[in-house]
Specification:
By secondary structure, this protein is an alpha+beta fold. It is built from 21 helices and 33 strands. Helix 11 (435-444) crosses helix 16.
Length: 737
């Protein structure tokens, strides 16, 4: 389960979004190897039925990784067909006839401090952590600049359908790729098939509390039974050998999935399938990933500096298997605090502290200088400044509103004197269980007022009213999001409506009249169920925003809801005092009644990656207050949706792909428009005016997995990319797509 995304990450758009979302990635065409260095010993390790030999390197590997592993017969290559060239001896890089002067340092930002699961990539679900470790640890595959799946640690694969209709995928690995101790820079060992087995075993051990275990046990044969046997004291523990993963040889690893799974390669781009050294785990114990000092690196960079809420520095891993496509030696990331202003990034850029920024519509000085000009003739699509470009970012995530159905912390620490009595809290919980009450929220939140924070004149560019993003997957050219639109139009009695704001141009969901009717019905139902007139308005605690300028947009959205409710709802807007308190309220104590704090980004190329988050026991239901201790309530709220989801999830044959999408679209419609369990409102898409020194379309691109945050193949110049340069590069990109 990738990417529980904090709304803190959307406060401002950093140059990282520009570099990773628009530039692209390419590993080498060939699969290099190296000879392990001075001293090696062989250690035999047994994984319940699978015996493998791991080579532990205690020295050497002083030279960059530069030899080649040959693809074995019977394997399909994963070689990248579009690798980028080298920087010339004079420091220039040429693409599409444009010659750029390059630099070897990249200065960017990060918006949320590493927290929660920290750098333990086998348990983490948060993007603000994975954006770091994806640059440190490589898995089997990644995406190129065109979103094609290409090899990282794997150079090829083969598949077979077994007699029991399970499917086995076997991968050939690059040989002798070194593990490097991030803390010291010294070689620890080499990456082998056993390390991929160790990673899965760690994820499937409930004691480790992995937030991504469900991804693995929903895919691999035997994984769920194994996980449950370790979770339930009443069940005898099963052997790990019953799980569908095996180190076939030192450099071959095989996964057996429950049934034919066309999207399995895309699933491998996410955290739970990353490798880990079992020897290192034994040595480090529970400190694994607790900080940058307790992690091994086989990826493009080491994290060599981390000053909390200040600065993070990456240094190029010279022993990286694809070092030739790591074009910068150093990456510095400056922390953007929640108290930053609309002009902060522009000022940092102009001071030379970062290499790009998105011009904020709230930054009057910057917007005039870079976009409109003094005569206000410029636009986002045609900025007056030659170094400012209109950049379309395809949606990589959907942010949602959601309710806390089982809140057991009532915020005594809320500032501003906001509080609720025990009786008021009980009334709130009762109201949230009422579907009509939630539907009142759905139609009463005037989210376009909130979206004006991102674009005052065209907030619809950021509007998303479906849960699953566009451009995730399609059947015969029809985007899955279009299936959801079809169901919406059929159920709502409309025609031609799309839930994607950038295409729709307005919000088809906000309707104050409809909202008032739902709230009136809900109030009558709640009073019939035992509440009294004195219990109204229902007090709803929401997490406010620390950014003073942004608070007005938040409040406008909630004020419209209060007005539509006609006295049924009172919003208590709680403003965090610190960044830590903001993160705590949202992701740790779940101290809210309603939140727009988080969203979801996909793990693989199938609607299930979004829709599974909200089923009973799903990937994100802890945000709804369901932590496994209140199963009956969870089934009451999510059971109807889960039943619809199960229909689509059961259609796994490639021949049933369209039927799968249609069934999932029915479930997705019900999730929002019948049960109002989630309220999609923001998609990370739309045109923005961007100033950047990173050459467009160099780094990896994908709406799922971890590739989007990788900084390999980012090429940085000594001056901002001009409109003419960007046009030439994009034309070349499209011509070769």
């Amino acid at each position: 389960m990738k990417k529980i995304l904090s709304i803190l990450m959307m406060v401002v758009f950093s140059v990282a979004l520009v570099a990773c979302g628009e530039t692209t990635l390419a590993p080498t065409t060939e699969a290099p190897t190296t000879t392990a260095g001075d001293t090696t010993t062989e250690a035999e390790t047994t994984t319940e039925g699978t015996t493998t030999t791991a080579v532990i390197t205690t020295g050497g590997l002083d030279d960059p990784y530069d030899t080649v592993t040959e693809l074995a017969e019977g394997y399909t290559t994963l070689a990248n067909q579009h690798p980028h060239g080298a920087i010339a001896a004079d420091g220039t890089y040429t693409v599409a006839g444009e010659v750029f002067n390059t630099v070897d340092i990249y200065q960017t930002t990060y918006n949320t401090e590493i927290t929660n699961s920290l750098l333990n990539y086998l348990t983490n679900t948060w993007t603000y952590n994975s954006e770091h470790y994806t640059n440190m640890v490589d898995g089997l595959v990644e995406n190129d600049q065109y979103s094609n799946i290409v090899g990282a640690m794997a150079i090829g694969y083969k598949t077979v359908i077994n007699d029991d209709l399970t499917q086995t995928w076997t991968f050939q690995l690059r040989e002798d790729v070194p593990w490097v101790d991030n803390a010291t820079g010294e070689v620890y060992g080499v990456v082998t098939a056993a390390d991929f087995v160790s990673g899965i075993k760690y994820v499937l051990d409930p004691i480790n509390g992995s937030g991504t275990a469900s991804i693995v046990y929903n895919l691999l044969e035997g994984a769920e039974a194994y996980y449950e046997s370790l979770s339930d004291d009443a069940i005898d523990d099963l052997a790990f050998s019953t799980v569908g993963i095996e180190a076939v040889s030192q450099y071959e690893v095989a996964y057996t999935v429950k049934q034919a799974t066309p999207y399995f390669l895309s699933a491998l781009t996410y955290s739970p399938f990353l490798p880990v050294s079992s020897y290192y785990l034994e040595q480090i114990g529970t400190d694994f990933g607790a900080s940058e000092d307790f992690i091994l690196v086989n990826g493009a960079f080491r994290m060599t500096e981390h000053i909390r809420e200040n600065l993070i520095t990456y240094t190029k891993n010279e022993l990286y298997w694809d070092a030739e496509h790591v074009y910068v030696d150093t990456v510095t990331k400056r922390f953007v605090p929640g108290t930053s202003t609309a002009s902060t990034l522009r000022e940092w850029y102009e001071a030379g502290n970062i290499d790009g920024f998105t011009v904020s519509t709230q930054d009057e000085v910057g917007y005039e200088n870079y976009v409109t000009g003094a005569d206000l003739t410029g636009t986002v699509m045609e900025p007056v400044d030659g170094s400012t470009n209109p950049v379309l970012r395809a949606a990589g995530a959907t942010y949602i509103g959601y309710f806390n159905f089982a809140r057991d912390v009532v915020g005594a620490e809320y500032n501003g004197g906001l509080s609720k009595t025990v009786e008021e809290h009980a009334a709130t919980l009762e109201a949230l269980l009422n579907v009509d009450f939630r539907l009142g929220f759905l139609h009463g939140l005037k989210v376009m007022d909130m979206l004006k924070w991102w674009h005052e004149d065209e907030p619809e560019l950021w509007l998303m009213r479906g849960y699953t993003i566009r451009e995730l997957c399609a059947f015969e050219g029809k985007d899955y999001a279009n299936y959801v639109d079809d169901v919406y139009n059929e159920k709502e009695g409309t025609s031609g409506i799309t839930l994607t704001g950038i295409l729709q141009g307005d919000d088809p969901v906000y309707d104050a009249v409809k909202s008032e009717a739902y709230f009136a019905t809900a109030k009558a139902e709640l009073i019939a169920g035992g509440l009294t007139e004195a219990d109204f308005p229902i007090k709803i605690d929401v997490i406010g925003n620390m950014n003073v300028a942004r608070q007005a947009y938040n409040l406008a959205m909630f004020d419209a809801l209060e007005a539509a409710s006609a006295g049924v709802v009172e919003i208590q807007y709680n403003i965090p005092a610190t960044d830590d308190q903001d993160a705590t309220w949202g992701s740790i104590t779940m101290n809210y009644d309603f939140s727009i704090w988080s969203g979801w980004g996909p793990d693989y190329a199938d609607p299930q990656t979004f829709l599974h988050t909200m089923v009973v026991g799903g990937d994100m239901v802890d945000s709804l207050g369901f932590d496994g201790t209140n199963e009956a309530l969870e089934i009451e709220v999510l059971g109807g949706y889960t039943a619809l989801y199960d229909i689509g999830a059961a259609l796994t044959d490639i021949e049933d792909l369209e039927a799968r999408y249609m069934a999932f679209a029915e479930a997705e419609y019900a999730l929002t428009y019948e049960y109002a369990i989630v309220i999609p409102w923001l998609g990370t898409n739309g045109y923005s005016p961007v100033v950047s020194k990173a050459i467009p379309n160099r780094a990896g691109k994908a709406s799922y997995g971890l590739t989007e945050d990788k900084l390999k193949n980012v090429i940085v110049t000594d001056a901002a990319i001009t409109q003419a340069q960007r046009t030439a590069v994009l034309d070349d990109y499209e011509a070769n797509k």
